Predict the 3D structure of the following.
Amino acid sequence: MIADVTPRSRPAATAVWSKVAAAQSGLLGVGFGIPAAYGTYYFATHDNTVWIFLGFPTNGDGPFVDVGIPTSVPLLVGFTVVCAVEVVVGLVLWTRPRLGGWLSIALLPFELAYWWGFALPFGPIGGLVRTVAVVMALRRGE
């Protein structure tokens, strides 16, 4: 029997890009958000000492410090909030791909600033994957 390729079955097949973008958004938000939240708590309760995880400083001692922006609780809270918004954007991408796509593009400059400032090399890679998926979803009308 030949597979049904009616217009009704096509939206499910083309929605893959928005699902990839949503999953990547969730991965970025949770992957950076959990260490950011604990790192903020650690910094605030350990005399402004940056938490070291697996031998690497979490969210501190990066380019922000080099340009004169010291690690502080408000800076770390800001990153934690950006990560939480990233998770929400992932949920919106999953349920309302067009709106979520535009929200993820609007959030990208804030993410890039923190990824750069805290020297997080996997952030831009994940952001690129998500952005490509968002652009593909928007081009396909998902």
In short: The chain has a mean pLDDT of 89. The helical segments are 10-14, 16-45, 63-66, 73-95, 97-117, 122-140. Residues 18-140 form one domain. Residues 16-45 form the longest helix (30 residues).
